[in-house]
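**User:** Everyone, produce a chain:

**Assistant:**
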Amino acid sequence: MLTRLSRPAALILCALPVIALLAVAVFAPLPFSVAQPGPTTNVLGKDDGKPVIKITGAPTRKPSGALRAVTIVATGPEATVRLGDVLDGWFADNRAIMPRDSVYPEGDSTKEIEQHNKREMKGSQDAATEAALNYLEAEGTTTSNIKVRLQLGDVGGPSAGLLFSLGIIDLLDGDGSGADLTGGKSIAGTGTIDGDGKVGAVGGVSLKVQAADRDGATVFLVPKAECGDAKASAPDSMRLIPVSTLKGTVAALTDLRKGSGSVPSC
């Protein structure tokens, strides 16, 4: 014999599966990482007491100003991110929610990910050195005896490539006429680079702009394709310069210092 439920009891019974699903959604781990602005490092200076760029085989300059490589930090591959974390990140200006497999290769252990990032950084450093020396050769500088060693702590990935190349050029040649490439300013930026000097896009630009502003940069070099992301979080006081090649970047910085020419802007 069937017992007819009262209307309130029936509603409660129907709501139980929904409540259970909501509970699972709130407490279950989700496949996301939460990212935020990370530290910046002046590649013309030192990191952990050692020069970020060490050059032998040629005299080097002592430039003023700064070339700041910027980073983001994200929750680790084994961190638990829940619905509350995702909602908080979506509504926060200084955080971003990113699919975990876009930050870390899916299925890799923490150790494998660290090794992968180190390999990417090593490849980026080699390409940055090659691009800088190729540029200097084209400008008439003899580079056959020059050796470059780059080190930047535990930072991984290829996004500091452009700043490494600019740092090498500033330490060896400045803007080519005896002046600093930075013009004494604190300049930050991001972008991959290949041996031919082509600048490539990176992720997390809006967060990197915030890191640069926090640490006193007044100019930000951004891969041209990511101008929109940079503008979304840049203060009015920060100048955004879109770049696509190493040669074009050096020319833009030189024109900026001299106050001449047409410096591109996002």
